[in-house]
Amino acid sequence: MTKRLFILSSAGKSLIAFSAIFVAGFASTIGPVAWVVAAEIFPQRLAAKCVTLATAANWGTNTVISEFRARPVDLELSGR
């Protein structure tokens, strides 16, 4: 007999479905654009180093944004 860990409501199921649709749509359309552009705009002799720097800058700015953004929990606790 299998044990069910949790039961999703219809709202939870639709959230998962629409999240999967969003990820599939983004990943198949505009998601890879930053990587393709970074790989194609530099001359061949500099491409490897420039793409490395572009990737590091992308990861670095994403880290900074995720660390210093306003979190919903923080806003709720501060009363804003």
Task: Please tell me about this protein's structure.
The protein is built from 4 helices and no strands. By secondary structure, it is mainly alpha-helical. The protein has 2 domains: 8-32; 42-80.
In a few lines, what is going on in this structure?
With 80 residues, the chain is an all-alpha fold. The protein has helices at 10-28, 33-40, 47-68, 72-78. The chain folds into 2 domains: 8-32; 42-80.
Write the layout of secondary structure elements.
Elements: H1 10-28, H2 33-40, H3 47-68, H4 72-78
Shape: elongated
Strand content: under 5%
Rg value: 20 Å
Largest sheet: none
Count of runs of 4 or more consecutive helical residues: 4
Task: List the quaternary state of the chains.
Answer: single chain
Q: What structural class should be given to the helix and strand makeup?
A: mainly alpha
Distance, first to last CA: 48 Å
Average pLDDT level: 83
N-to-C SSE string, H for helix and E for strand:
HHHH
Total beta strands: 0
Query: How much helicity do the residues have?
Result: over 70%
Integer count of domains: 2
Unreliable sequence segments? none
